[in-house]
Each structure stands twice: as C-alpha cells, then as structure tokens.
Amino acid sequence: MRAAFYMKQGPAREVLQVGEQPTPEPGPGEVRVHLRTSGANPSDWKSRSGRTATMSAPLIIPHSDGAGDIDRVGAGVADRVGERVWIWNGQWRRSHGTAAEYIVLPSVQAVPLPTNISYAEGACFGIPALTALQAVRLAELSPASTVMIVGGAGSVGHYAIQFAKMRGARIITTVSGPEKAAHARRAGADEVINYRTENVSQRVKTLTDGRGADSLIELDLSTNGKDYPNILRPHATVVVYGMSSNEATLPTLWLMRNSITLRLFLVYDLSAADREDSLAELGTLLQSNRLIHTVGRRLPLGEIALAHELSECGEVVGNIVLDIG
C-alpha cells in the first residue's frame, strides 16, 4: 500500500517520505479500513518534530483522524464490509496511523459515517470535534452561562462554539484577524475579540459588566493562565485541552481564593463512559446535519509535508485534510 511515514524526527520536509509499506490484515476484533482521507492536526506535527513525543517505533505512519470504507473484518467482528466510517485514535499508542491507503484497528474505533457527510468532513471528527465536545461537556454550560472559548476560529474552537451554542450559552471568543472573526461568528459566537488589536481582559470585563466569564475553554494553559484573574468570575470553571509547554506558572493563590475549578483532559484518553456519550451525541448531530464542518485545505497524500507545515503555522482557517489515492 502507499503510505506516508518517517523513520526519524525532525522538520517535515527532511523526515517525511511517501512510498510503499506492507498492507495490514485485521486480527480478531479488528477491521481494515480503505482510507479515502486523513486529517492533519497539530498533535501530528508536534509528534513528528519531537516536540511532544519520542519515536515509539522504527517507522511511524502518522495521523489519528481519517475516513474511508471497511473492506475486511477480523474474527469475531460482525460483517461490516462496505460500511462508510470515520476513525478516532488511529495512531494513538500505535505506529500505524491514517496517512496510508489502509489502516487496521479495533472495530469500535471505526464509527459509521452518515451518507450526508463527506469523507473529507469525516476526517475532522476524531480530534477536533471530540475534543470540542468533551470540553463543552466538562464546562457544564447552561443558558445562564457566559463561556469564553479561546481560539474560536481553530478546528477545536469552531466546533466548541457550535456545541456551546446548542446548550444556550453566551459565547465570547478570541481570534487573530477579521477572516477568523467572521468564521467564528458563523459558528455562533456572540462576541469576538481580536487578541492582536484589543485588550482581551478589558473586553471580557466590559462584555460581562465587570463580572467575568463563568467558564473558559482553553487551548494554551501555559501562555494564558496568568490572565485568569482578569477574565474569570469567582467559582468559574476552566477546561483545558492544550498547552504550549510542559510547565505553566499560574496565579494559584488567586485561583484558590476564588474557588476556580481547573479540569484538564486528553482527548486520546477519554474514559469509556465519556467516549460513549460523546460519540452518541456527535452521531445524532451528524445524522441531523446540525453542524458546520470546515475543510480549509485539501492536499494529496504526497504533499503531507506541506500539510504539516500549514498546520504548524496556524494560518489555515478550517481543517487540513489529505486525499488518499
């Protein structure tokens, strides 16, 4: 099969290759998916570069998200051949991800893809949509809530705005420019702050009549944690799904005195119950066409290095998807 892979960590164009690799066969409880698309996420370039992980195997086929069709099943799996599916955790604790023509994985990790959803859109769910949904669920939003979603034009933030709006919350979000502001508003953001030209803390205080946000969905605790005293009300909840460094300096005395709740999670490692609930909710929303999906850039598998570079620079509005085949 044709696949993208790397055998050492480093810059995308220096280490990523595209060539032939053995076609996998499903074992007991597994399915094989003939992939049509593969999603490129920030965690993929961070792992490839060595920023967040070491080499777990001599050869890595990257990417955890993707979509395609089941073409073979292993022993003990009901006949699912021909099903359209999307993938979660394709490369989590495994060396063989979705940047290939085929992937083998446990049957439960191949989720039925409704016919009204494209394969390209299906490559956006495993990390972006499930991260956003878990963050919103942990924030425990209600129609009385004001939530601040950091990075509302990002792939996670864009979905988080939609899930928060469905819960009736008032949404404040941050972006880096006019195009991204429009993108966030289309998703349902009520107030948009350009963090490059506006004072975020002052704007949040103004928008909340000096009270502060009830909750915050955070993509970078390491950078933004210092600002929480100027953004949050007492007894607020912060849900953290990302950070830019291994350590963070936080205003811990203020957090304690104001009874702030910090809830950190990793989308790859959700509990079985949380995963089941999120998949059920997402599945219902997909079937009813209630979500906006944004594929910002599509590239052939052979341009995986460019996909990683675009993900790293963060300027693409929407998800970056590779077409396979």
Descriptive labels:
alpha/beta; Rossmann fold; 2 domains; seven-stranded mixed sheet; 11 helices; 26% strand
Tell me the number of strands: 15
Give the H and E element order: EHEEHEEEEHHEHEHEHEHEHEHEHE
User: What structural category do the secondary elements indicate?
Assistant: alpha/beta
The domain count comes to 2
Q: Helix tally?
A: 11
Radius of gyration computed on alpha carbons: 20 Å
Characterise this structure.
- The chain is an alpha/beta fold.
- It folds into two domains: 2-124 and 293-323, Alpha-Beta Complex (Quinone Oxidoreductase, Chain A, domain 1); 128-268, 3-Layer(aba) Sandwich (Rossmann fold).
- It contains eleven helices and 15 strands.
- It has helices at residues 12-15, 42-49, 119-122, 125-139, 155-166, 178-187, 200-207, 221-224, 252-257, 272-287, 304-313; strands at 2-5, 17-20, 30-40, 65-73, 84-87, 102-106, 110-112, 146-149, 170-175, 191-194, 213-218, 232-240, 261-264, 295-300, 319-323.
- The strands form three sheets. Strands 3, 4, 5, 6, 7, 14 and 15 form a seven-stranded mixed β-sheet that branches. A six-stranded parallel β-sheet has the order 10-9-8-11-12-13, sandwiched between helices. Strands 1-2 form a two-stranded antiparallel sheet.
- Helix 2 (42-49) crosses helix 11.
- The protein is globular and about 60 Å long.
- It starts with a strand and ends with a strand.
- The model has no long low-confidence stretch (mean pLDDT 97).
Short structural description:
This protein is of the alpha/beta class and 325 residues long. The chain folds into two domains: 154 residues, Medium-chain alcohol dehydrogenases, catalytic domain (Quinone Oxidoreductase, Chain A, domain 1), CATH 3.90.180; 141 residues, 3-Layer(aba) Sandwich (Rossmann fold).
